[in-house]
Amino acid sequence: MAASLDEKFESLESILAEHLPADVLEKVNLSLRGPGSTNLELSTKAKEMAKKNNFDLQGYQIKIAQKEETRPPRLVRIAAIQNAIQKPTTASVEEQRNAIHQRVDQMLAAAHECQVNIVCLQEAWTMPFAFCTREKYPWVEFAEPAYDGPSTKFLAERAKKYNMVIVSPILERDEEHGDVCWNTAVIISNRGNVIGITRKNHIPRVGDFNESTYYMEGNTGHKVFETDFGRIAVNICYGRHHPQNWLMYGVNGAEIVFNPSATVGALSEPLWSIEARNAAIANSYFAVGINRVGTEAFPNEFTSGDGKPAHKNFGHFYGSSYIASPDGSRTPGLSRIRDGLLVAECDLNLCRQMKDKWGFRMTQRLDLYADSFARAICPDYKMDIIKDPSSKK
Amino acid sequence: MAASLDEKFESLESILAEHLPADVLEKVNLSLRGPGSTNLELSTKAKEMAKKNNFDLQGYQIKIAQKEETRPPRLVRIAAIQNAIQKPTTASVEEQRNAIHQRVDQMLAAAHECQVNIVCLQEAWTMPFAFCTREKYPWVEFAEPAYDGPSTKFLAERAKKYNMVIVSPILERDEEHGDVCWNTAVIISNRGNVIGITRKNHIPRVGDFNESTYYMEGNTGHKVFETDFGRIAVNICYGRHHPQNWLMYGVNGAEIVFNPSATVGALSEPLWSIEARNAAIANSYFAVGINRVGTEAFPNEFTSGDGKPAHKNFGHFYGSSYIASPDGSRTPGLSRIRDGLLVAECDLNLCRQMKDKWGFRMTQRLDLYADSFARAICPDYKMDIIKDPSSKK
Questions:
Q1: Is any Cβ of chain A less than 8 angstroms from the Cβ of B28?
Q2: Residue to substitute from B384, B387, B390, B393, interface A, most A β-carbons within 10 A
Q3: Is the four-CA dihedral A126, A132, A138, A144 of positive or negative sign?
Q4: Are A391 and B270 inside 8 Å of each other by CB?
Q5: Boundaries of every domain in chain B
Q6: Edge-to-edge strands of the sheet including B224-227?
Q7: Is B36-376 in CATH node 3.40.50.2300?
Q8: Rounded distance, CA B107 to CA B246, Å?
Q9: What is the pLDDT of residues B234-243, one digit of tens each?
Q10: Set of chain A residues whose Cβ sits within 8 Å of the Cβ of B253
């Protein structure tokens, strides 16, 4: 069996739909995704925009929560945008960034047509994921101040125009603190102001992901942002591998946690469908995994720490953005190979209802783990291992 | 769409194999399970035993680790046994237990033929999962002392005979501490002695799972047992919903964590394939999910806290036991409806190799979470929520 899927594999969902009879497909989908999602009819105009501009557009209604006596439903439409870079990495920084702005602008307009309330873009959406190169210039020139950089200004204008909260994950230049860079998400309100920022808490040292060369572990903790449409948080990329990171966003009251990412097939595809969904389950919130698409080539060759020859391509970013629900079900994924906009309508009341049903927060025993973690980090910690008294080993 | 799969649905794997052309099936399986498992040829005798005694038998070789210069491979065969109860719940306690012993004995013999080194049975394997009833008698009479109860004696004899570590999850009667009950796994070495016990850390209060009526949260922490064939731990049933529980077994050095369970379709099936696999990924160890099969009916009617009429059936325990690898791939699942034995050969060296590759332990920031959890449990904790200054809400 091949080690990873190739770029011709559009999506698991499309290949199953092509080959399975309708009654079988229904059961298989139920087995794969749970009972939570049905198709959401999107506006004709949005569909025309998607066709004209060649991006994948999918809409789902996520299992609507049961009716409560004392709280009205809290229906919101959340969305994810995934895209490839638009210009070669040899183009100027400004040219590359502007082209991506224009591309994302098309999808933001479609999101507005789909009555989206909150949308999140992919990690470092304004630039190629150049950290594979370990070169600083020109790549760090994509970094911008969080509160008034060109991408924040660009999105703030759209956020206000469309009455839409926009989460903008960028490479941040922190001029107030020695010009360091951070991997940061900027939370822009539906009135166009920046509500705040949150930084990537866990930084990879894996293969081509040399990000620790560029920025450190985030220092913003696990902030949750209260927007007009619900409490949101952002777990950036590699942080999805750390369940304790997802957990703390839940502790701080998040109802929707976005996971803007950039990850490639041979490395992480078997993990992708699992991690955000597990977080939605364990923390009784909605989780949104977003991954870029396409293959990015760089001007100078680089090695990947795997003994293989130097090369110029990063590998295939496989898209497959999806939304998982606190009841454990999930939407289908966007395309593995095309830009896309994923829209889901959900009732945030489902979060508390799932907390009440499953009781995970009640049974979480954080006191036990606060103590266990505190002991485990001591230099003289001894693992709690019981040896077999009968063993001669 | 129906809310849950019915009992005619044998398994996702069998239905896909039935309907998809070979080349498509290969890609779909790669997408669903990752590249990690290939078929393992099992002994003819074991296959004959499975056929004669009508249980599902499946064997896989899990991606063998790369060759290291300074450590030899550590190949072990691990196994899971899932089964239905064998007698009506109206039969005597001893009759019910003995019938299950006999059934499991058939599968243990087959496991021996498959050269299994470590096998784990399902949660409370000696009894029906009677906690739905909230009745104490006769159900608590299935409880037995961990070190010398009838089921421990029965398994200790087989463990020695077969040179096989057996993990035996039972309802424990703790005579030394006021006759209380616990939900406990007994770790029996391949020489037939009890290495130790470990108890269920998180107790559900969900639907028919009235377990908190019978026993409290476990007081054994996150022990890991050093056996002749590797370091193992046991995360019992509902503990799989808590990633911080899985995490602490990893901190204590587990290479294989078993998750013996009893869970039913309409409640948890969308979660089942996610949680143990996520744990294997996040903690760089092998994780084994084991679930009982069949529908259990009880003599007296009970209600399920869902407003529906009283009834006597628990619902469908959907089996589907599987093994997940630290590289994120997984084996197919056993049948949803038949008893079964799942065997996998793995190289425990893969655990450290995945730690080195992904670096999750290095980047875990347990210091941050020890502090965050300690603060979060304070009665006056305020969630870290950033409000939108422009909001009039």
A1: yes
A2: B384
A3: positive
A4: no
A5: 36-376
A6: A385-387, B224-227, B230-234, B256-261, B286-291, B322-324
A7: no
A8: 28
A9: 999 999 999 9
A10: 383, 385
Q: Which string of DSSP letters, residue by residue, matches A10-50?
A: --HHHHHHHHS-HHHHHHHHHHHH-S-EEE-PPPHHHHHHH
Rounded CA-CA distance B33/B183 in Å is 31
Tell me, yes or no, if A123 is annotated catalytic.
yes
CA distance A260 to A198: 12
* pLDDT tens digits, A304-333: 999 999 999 988 999 999 999 999 999 999
- Closest residue of A to B268, CA-based? A328
* Contact (CB<8Å) B252/A383: yes
Q: Which residue would you say has higher pLDDT here, A2 or B172?
A: B172
pLDDT in tens, A95-110: 999 999 999 999 999 9
Sign of CA dihedral B322, B323, B326, B329: negative
pLDDT tens-place string over residues B300-336: 999 999 999 999 998 899 999 999 999 999 999 999 9
pLDDT score of A6: 81
Residue B43: per-residue pLDDT: 96
Task: Determine the average pLDDT of the residues in A27-44.
Answer: 93
Question: Residues B354, B355, B361, B364: is their CA dihedral positive or negative?
Answer: negative
CA atoms of B332 and B59, how far apart (whole Å): 10
Cα separation, B106 vs B81, in Å, equals 11
Banded model confidence at residue A2, pLDDT cuts 50, 70, 90? low
Q: Burial of A22 by CB count in 10 Å (0-12 exposed, 13-18 middle, 19+ buried)?
A: exposed
Residue B87 CB neighbour total at 10 angstroms: 15
Contact B385 A224 (CB under 8 A): yes
| Rounded-to-integer distance, Cα B15 and Cα B11, Å | 6
Q: What was the ipTM of the complex prediction? A: 0.96
Judging contacts by C-beta atoms under 8 Å, the chain B residues touching residue A15 are 24, 27-28
Interchain CB distance below 8 Å, B20 and A21: no
Indicate the burial class of A166 (C-beta count within 10 angstroms; 0-12, 13-18, 19 or more): buried
Q: Is the pLDDT of residue B352 over 50?
A: yes
| B146 and A CB contact within 8 Å | no
Q: Do A385 and B225 touch (CB under 8 A)?
A: yes
| Candidate list B13, B114, B132, B200, residue with the active-site label | B200
Question: What average pLDDT is seen over chain A?
Answer: 96
Task: Chain A: give the shortest CA distance to residue B94, in Å.
Answer: 31
Give the minimum alpha-carbon distance from A91 to chain B in angstroms, rounded to a whole number.
32
Put simply, whether B372 touches A (Cβ < 8 Å) is yes
Q: At B259, list the tokens.
A: 């998750």
A94 vs B: CB within 8 A: no
Tokens (6 digits) for A237: 């990329």
Q: Which residues of B touch A205 (CB under 8 A)?
A: 359, 362-363
Express each pLDDT in B3-18 by its tens digit.
678 888 899 999 999 9
Record: contact A383-B30, CB cut-off 8 A = no
Which structure tokens are listed for B391? Answer: 């909001």
Residues in chain A: 393
Question: Going edge to edge, which strands form the sheet with B385-387?
Answer: A322-324, A286-291, A256-261, A230-234, A224-227, B385-387
